[in-house]
Amino acid sequence: MIQMNWQLLISAIVLGLSMSGVYFLLTVGLSLCYGLMRIISLDQFFYYALGAYMVYTINAMTGNFWLGMLGAMLSVLVVAFVVERLINKRVYSKPVMFSMILTFGVNLMGVGLIKYVWGLTPKPVASPLAGRVMILGTGVPVYRVFVIALAVVVYFAVQYFLNKTILGTAIRAGIDDAEKVKALGINISRLFTVTFLLSSVLSALAGVIHAPFVMVSPEMGMTITAFAFMVVIIGGLGSIKGTMVSALIVGQVVSLGSLIWAPLAEMAPFLVMIIILLLKPTGLYGSKLMYR
Amino acid sequence: MKRFFKSETGIIITFALLYLLKGILPTAFLTEVVIFSIYAMGCSFLIGRLGLTSFGQPAYLAFGAYGAGVYLYYFGHNSLVAIFVSVLFSLVLNMLVGSFMVRLNSSYFTLCNQAFCVVTFFLFQKALVKWTFGDNGLLLISRMDPTPIIDLTTTKGIYLFAFLMAVAVWFFYQYLMKKSVFGATCLCVKDNEMKLRFLGYKTFNIKWLAFVIANTTAGLAGALYTVYFCMVNANIANVNTASEAVAISMLGGAGTLFGPLVGSFLFIGLKDIASQFISHWEVLVGLLLIIVMLAGEKGIVGSLEGYLEKLKEKRTLAKPALTKEGGL
Amino acid sequence: MGMPNIVEVKNLNAAYGQSKVLFDINLYIKPNERVAIVGRNGAGKTTLQKCIASLLHPTGGSVLYNGAELVGKQPYEVARLGLKYIDQDKHVFLDLTVRENLELSSYATGDYDWDKVFKHFPKLKILIDRKGAYLSGGERQMLMIGRAILGDPKVLLVDEPTEGLAPSIVDDLVTTFHELSKDCAIMTVGQNLSFVSRVAERVYAMKEGRLVAEITDEADIKNHSYCEYL
Fold first, then answer.
1. CATH number for the domain including C168?
2. How far apart are CA B91 and CA B155, in angstroms?
3. Per residue in B13-37, pLDDT tens?
4. Chain A neighbors of B112, CB-CB under 8 A
5. How far is A235 from chain C (nearest CA, A)?
6. Does residue C1 sit within a domain?
């Protein structure tokens, strides 16, 4: 009996970690966008859903998940570019509320378009990596381990990009003060576009890797919104490290919480969020710099 | 002209005109507009006067709606009492929630409210399903007795009652915005909270009180919805509608007295008309939100007020120019 | 005069919303010249500089740089053309090291020759790996200027360079400005009149959004006789 519980616990932890991976990929974009452009980009959830749908479609046509992943990221890149140039860039200089409602509008439109194109019925996506690996005497699906690994790789890639490349340096400078970056002679508008596209592609990737876990449905972007927000709030807006830490926390709370009592999966992260905000009103890693 | 629309007679005449519109427009539409404008009033006050944007208004709407719904389903049969009880209920809840929410700075306030809204939706839909019946909701049609004076079980009665409530709400907010010191301190919070603190005000109290007032107004609207529809289900807290209250506030002009009314009228009207042509409401509402946001910050009433102000300025400037050479 | 003006401002007007702040500004800067604008708080000095650097959009008039119109250009384009603006709040990027601050400027201008920066400010070489947040006011000012001279600008607009700096550092700054003006024109804005008298070759007095006087006489600059205009 104890053996059984032990295995349950291990697999719940691994599931939680893979959820953390999805949350991290989805929220790192939100965090970057807020940090640099001071917008809360709710249309990331549309790119997340679109990514999932694209991988479903390409997977159904060609039978190749990895081709689907590539196709999803590319198509979201194009869509996000159009949205950014046409709509989003108009609210960069305005209070956060504007970007929030505006991008929520984009998100809603996206949901409508998805319903129009793919219909209302949820679609299954088969896991590309069948089989299990043994971790501490527990069989764990390989795909979950792959998701965790991918998230780790993305985390380090983003950190490398921000800290070691000149474009990343410019983004960090812009997070500090966008006006001064302009005065230096850097095209801040292009920097914004690059950041937005990076965020959107990561959101699409989150949708792609999340697709085999859940049924792909039009409302999937809406469903995950609350969790993504909790991750962003707990970690502190604009901090990549904070996003990672809080994604880990929320993933475990969701997974272990549902082990104890099913409704806890959705309530517990909220409680954690309230406690952390009471202790530190800017989230775990939200700095005073972000206080604008 | 401008002063007229800020005074008590302005409110009465505006609502009287709106009331008379029922000769032309369907009563159902007008009732919805009036209830929605009460709902949007709180949101508009928070945005325009306090600089706090709440993306979780449906949660506060649901407090009121469920307050009335639960009372009618389990305890009594009188709709008037139900509305009274639900306002009290949402007042208490908002006091609790507010003491947490107003500690946050504006971006976190916005996000936390949305997260709170999702949790409230979940609470009513799943966690408390035993008592709220989730998506099916509480059906109250057989549980509402006719009430004395104004019969809330008839469409005419609820329509009249909603109007009277709206006039009361407008009087209250007119006092709050134009005449009270509290309204002025709210504006100071929006402008520069730090400086107000240096002046010796405890800004937490101001924000808390404003939060409670605004969201209890939303609670009242929720109660009216329950009585109007004779039912309440979890969908009232659906986060998908969260942006509507904010968008309507912006469309009409946040922080203006008549903004919520104008905004509700246009938004619901457009939605009603256009939904006859497009079957997917998401595309439509999304498009509307984008247009409203790109149109500008002041909203319809806000720009109108600005225009009137300019006219007035021109008139007052024109006079001294006759006697003096240029401006000093 | 043989040398053409490098910057020429004609009938420049600017407003914040309804309230006008600049009224028909006309001025010029010659190559390698040190110009100062003096005036009280709120006279519009900073606004004027920001308009020249395209960080604000004027409501009318034109700014010519080497004969080319700057009004309507993006700020980054203006900076790349060789007209750099240095802010008064000495804001280096706090999260970035000195090296990264310089790298950023090099990236924007394509000029990786940091030796000229270190020639003027040897101290920056020692501080190269320190984060902006841990620099003193004087060091920040060095970094601001050092960052700006990458890309060999022809005009530097420096807003209130002496604000909040110790007198000894101000002395260094005077020397630096004299050296810098061998390569480019400098336009400073300030209220520190002793600094202005030591640096400037020509002074514009500004009052309530208008240029009220142009002082070219060296003695007048030395004894602050322009104060009567302010």
1. 3.40.50.300
2. 27
3. 777 777 777 777 788 888 888 899 9
4. 233, 273, 277
5. 19
6. no
Number of domains in chain B: 1
Is B290–A106 a contact, with Cβ atoms under 8 angstroms apart? yes
Parent domain of B148: 2-240
Which of A97, A117, A232, A264 has the most B C-beta neighbours within 10 Å, making it the best mutation to test the interface with B?
A97
Q: Is B130 on the interface with A (CB under 8 A)?
A: no
The Cα–Cα gap between C152 and C105 comes to 11
Q: How many domains does chain C have?
A: 1
For C146-166, the pLDDT digits (tens) are 888 888 888 888 888 887 788
Q: Are B82 and B76 in contact (CB under 8 A)?
A: yes
Residues of the domain holding C158: 7-229
Amino acid B267: pLDDT: 84
Would you state the pLDDT for residue A153?
A: 94
By Cβ distance, the residue of A34, A102, A113 closest to B290 is A102
Determine, for residues A263 and B127 on separate chains, whether the beta-carbon distance falls below 8 Å. Answer: yes
- Cross-chain residue pair A188–C76, CB shorter than 8 Å: yes
**DSSP H helical ranges for chain C:** 45-52, 75-81, 98-109, 115-120, 123-126, 137-149, 167-180, 193-199, 218-222
Q: Which numeric CATH code is attached to A2-290? A: 1.10.3470
The ipTM (two decimal places) reads 0.78
Question: Is A234 part of the contact surface with chain C (CB cutoff 8 Å)?
Answer: no
Which residue from C199, C230, C175, C188 is spatially nearest to C36, judged by alpha carbons? Answer: C188
Query: Per-residue pLDDT tens for A260-290?
Result: 777 777 778 888 888 888 887 777 777 544 4
Q: What are phi and psi of A261, to 5 degrees?
A: -155, 120
| Contacts of A among chains (3+ CB pairs under 8 A) | B, C
Q: How far away is chain A from the Cα of C138, in angstroms, using its nearest Cα?
A: 18
* C162 within 8 A of C192, measured Cβ to Cβ: yes
Chains with at least 3 CB pairs less than 8 angstroms from chain C: A
